[in-house]
């Protein structure tokens, strides 16, 4: 009857919540041990100069190969790491790793590193960055930090100060996933950013309508007027590429060119080269 089937539904619901919680708790437990167990590694995705089609650098993208959970993607574990604070240590590991890779790349190459708002707002972040630059002998000018607008809106005044200090060290700054948050366009003028990355959702919607194209075009033109260079993220096909070339974007990134890969698969990486 209706009563028992209702109860069953509730039971099923509780069960799936419990399974979800169990997985989350399990993931969090594993995450706490992952650094120590050396389960993280970095993949690199090249970014191309849209005029020359040459690689100008790479975005570092973290991967987690967990003994218990298998491969876990960053969208599944970065939010957990931000929640429980492990992002501080994980972010530090990413930056150090990226700086060491940089030494074995052609000196014209830059590395783009994603930085969480929790890192940016951490008291010791700047000190840590300087320490890592020193110990790895990395030239700050070859690093670009990627931050999201939503992250910076959490505490705009503090973010702004932190960004100015990073700029002063010589580190370039880019605004990631642009267009997905709800910040006003004035953020482009407020923050000391040199690069803007248009989110892949906009790039992928361009084919399906003139209006979406108009949005991307407007973002590019406004950025250029503010002396900000523009990257298109998530370029997946020739049609998108042709539209973007027409719009005079500065840099391109996406599966159409190359998926995130291990660094030693790129010829600009010299560690194993024969001398
Ligand atoms: P993101 O910084 O916006 O990175 C771009 C994401 O788009 C990456 O996903 C990349 O693999 C994917 N992508 C690149 N080209 C294409 C394409 O043509 N089509 C499609 N559909 N996707 C493409 P991934 O590696 O899964 O990373 C997801 C997000 O996780 C990143 O978004 C970033 O927010 C975060 N993340 C990754 N690594 C780190 C890290 O070291 N630290 C922090 N704090 N966050 C990270
Ligand atoms: Mg990024
Ligand atoms: Mg992005
Ligand atoms: Mg993203």
What does it look like?
- With 275 residues, the chain is of the alpha/beta class.
- The chain is built from 11 helices and 9 strands.
- The chain has an 8-stranded mixed barrel with strand order 1-2-4-5-6-7-8-9, surrounded by 4 helices.
- The model has no long low-confidence stretch (mean pLDDT 91).
Descriptors:
eight-stranded mixed barrel, 275 residues, alpha/beta, PAS domain S-box-containing protein/diguanylate cyclase (GGDEF)-like protein, 19% strand, binds ligand C2E
Approximately how much beta-strand content do the residues carry? 15-25%
Instruction: Report the bound ligands by name, code or SMILES.
Output: ligand C2E, magnesium ion
Main sheet specs:
8 strands, mixed, barrel
H-E string: HEEEHHEHHEHHEHEHHEHE
- Tally of DSSP β-strands: 9
Look at the helices and sheets and give the structural class: alpha/beta
> Whole-number average pLDDT?
91
State the low-pLDDT regions, or none.
none
The general outline is globular
Distance between the termini: 79 Å
Helix content: 40-55%
Radius of gyration based on Cα positions: 21 Å
How many helix segments? 11
User: Which strand order does the major sheet show?
Assistant: 1-2-4-5-6-7-8-9
Protein name: PAS domain S-box-containing protein/diguanylate cyclase (GGDEF)-like protein
Organism: Saliterribacillus persicus
Domain EAL: 24-274
């Amino acid at each position: 009857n209706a009563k028992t089937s209702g109860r069953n539904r509730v039971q099923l619901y509780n069960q799936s919540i419990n399974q979800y919680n169990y997985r989350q708790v399990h993931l969090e437990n594993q995450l706490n041990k992952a650094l120590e167990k050396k389960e993280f590694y970095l993949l690199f995705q090249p970014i191309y100069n849209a005029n020359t089609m040459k690689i100008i650098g790479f975005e570092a993208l973290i991967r987690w190969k967990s003994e218990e959970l298998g491969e876990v993607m960053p969208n599944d574990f970065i939010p957990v790491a931000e929640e429980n604070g492990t992002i501080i240590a994980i972010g530090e590991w990413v930056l150090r790793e990226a700086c060491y890779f940089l030494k074995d790349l052609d000196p014209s190459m830059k590395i783009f590193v994603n930085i969480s708002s929790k890192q940016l707002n951490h008291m010791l972040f700047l000190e840590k960055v300087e320490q890592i630059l020193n110990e790895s002998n990395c030239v700050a000018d070859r690093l670009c930090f990627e931050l999201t607008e939503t992250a910076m809106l959490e505490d705009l005044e503090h973010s702004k100060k932190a960004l100015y200090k990073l700029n002063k060290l010589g580190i370039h700054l880019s605004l990631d996933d642009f267009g997905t948050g709800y910040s006003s366009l004035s953020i482009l003028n407020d923050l000391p950013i040199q690069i803007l990355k248009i989110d892949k959702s906009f790039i992928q919607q361009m084919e399906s309508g003139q209006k979406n194209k108009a949005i991307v075009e407007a973002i590019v033109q406004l950025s250029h007027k503010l002396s900000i260079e523009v990257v298109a993220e998530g370029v997946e096909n020739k049609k998108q590429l042709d539209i973007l070339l027409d719009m005079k974007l500065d840099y391109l990134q996406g599966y159409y060119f190359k998926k995130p890969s291990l660094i030693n698969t790129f010829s600009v990486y010299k560690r194993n080269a024969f001398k």
